[in-house]
Amino acid sequence: MGVSNTYELLEQRGYIYQSTDPERVRELVNGKPMVFYLGIDPTADSLHIGHFFALMMFRYLQEAGHKGILLIGGATALVGDPSGKSDMRRMLSKQKVAANLEEVKELAKKFIITTGENAAIITNNAEWIAPYSYIDFMRDIGIHFNVNKMLSAETYSNRIKEGGLTFLEMAYMPMQAYDFVHLNREFGCVLQIGGSDQWGNIVAGSTLNRKLNNVSEDERAYDKDLFGLTCPLLMTKDGKKMGKTESGTLWVAREKTTPYDFYQYFYNVDDENVELLLKLFTRLELDRIKSVCSTDIVAAKKLMAYEITKLVHGKEEADKVVDAVSTLFGKNDSVENLPFVKVPFERISNGAKLVDLLVEVGFLPSRSEARRMIDQGAITLDGEKVGSIDQTVGKSDFGKGYIIVKRGKKNFLKIEV
Questions:
Q1: Which member of 105, 110, 211, 241 is catalytic?
Q2: Whole-prediction pTM value?
């Protein structure tokens, strides 16, 4: 892929939502190598589908010859981004943020170029924010932020409507804005990319840069203008963020979302989202995507779910999932690749209530939900409908070394001892 049409390619595949200066950003993306950055706050020990989306755009820009900086927010994660939140984020300890940071760093390496001549720079904003004293930061940076304008931004106005905004959260925008300025001074970074929920923070960074240049007595020539480019938030047809499942967020780490559940999530999306997801999360040619979606939407769904699972978890895991899906729908008799959990033999040796076991292994969120689904006839055990909330399982049920439970039509779990 040459640098001459990178912007158009991103546009055709659905990555571009808004930019601070469309024509100038187009020139930057299609022009000679420049430095850009993406920020991710390590507020969890994994990446979710929204991060995956932005990292895909990161990779395209790298392949076009641009230098990418992945900024993992060891400092901003301690504050919490109020964007899109109705309540304040749960505060994390410094130790938890540090542990999350290392996990996120390793997972991100699956999607972006981190070796060779154009390897991404991976850095942590705690390196330059932590040494900054509170008073000096407020005098140097805080003075350039008008509170009235900040409160009118969607980032903060929504939080106020939903029940309040803390002074801690108010610090988030100045900190992220300063990140952009620092990366420009340190690495010559001129473009920030991110989800559309980061628009206010991105604009704040470019604005802060202009204000600092106007008052600076530093004789060095820094970039006058910094630019922002956002991708759209992935939404379902009913207006909810894509990537939310019955059990919570769709994570990249297999320990948090199994490859099977990952595949099933994408296979079960609405038909109208299939073409967009194929464009965003696969490298298939656009003509092929349009053709398969218009001629056989079921085949398109299978292709999309497989390709995305392969990209995130590797071909071997994706093939195992396809084999497991074939098993569950009767196309072969192997159960080797079904999603599974293990329980100690002692747990079932004297009999265990199925309601309790389903909750303990994470198949259902609560005992009340387990009882409700059994009452509705929605739970089967080794192909037989569970008829009573008092049913138990014991040694005789695990004669093969496992049982298979099913919820509804598409949710399966093998419980091994």
A1: 241
A2: 0.77
Q: Is 85 designated active site?
A: yes
346 shares a domain with 321? no
Any catalytic annotation for residue 43? yes
Nearest alpha-carbon partner for 260 in 403, 416, 111, 411: 411
Residue 245 is a catalytic residue: yes
Determine the 3-state secondary structure of 136 from DSSP.
Answer: helix
Q: For residues 244 and 261, is the Cβ–Cβ distance under 8 A? A: no
* Co-location of 73 and 213 in the same domain: yes
- Kindly state whether residues 311 and 366 are assigned to the same domain: no
Residue in 41, 81, 179, 197 annotated catalytic: 197
Identify the burial level of 217 via C-beta atoms within 10 angstroms of its C-beta, where 0-12 means exposed, 13-18 middle and 19 or more buried. exposed
For residue 409, indicate whether it is catalytic: no
- Whether residue 12 lies in the annotated active site: no
Please confirm, yes or no, whether 144 is among the known catalytic residues: no
- Reference 27, options 229, 286, 230; nearest CA is 229
* Strand partners of residue 403: 415
Q: Domain count for the chain, please give it.
A: 3
Q: Respond yes or no: is residue 244 known to be catalytic.
A: yes
Write the pLDDT tens digit of every residue in 211-236. 998 887 666 656 789 999 999 988 77
Residue 23: pLDDT band by 50, 70, 90 thresholds? very high
Active-site entry in 6, 13, 20, 48 = 48
Query: pLDDT tens digits for 372-385?
Result: 888 888 888 876 77
- State the burial class of residue 321 (Cβ atoms within 10 Å of its Cβ: 0-12, 13-18, 19+): buried
Work out the percent of the chain whose per-residue pLDDT is above 90: 41
Residues 103-145 have pLDDT tens digits of 888 888 889 999 999 999 999 999 999 999 999 999 999 999 9
Spot the catalytic one: 114, 207, 236, 245.
245
Task: Exactly one of 24, 59, 85, 353 is catalytic; name it.
Answer: 85
**H or E element, residue 328:** helix 315-328
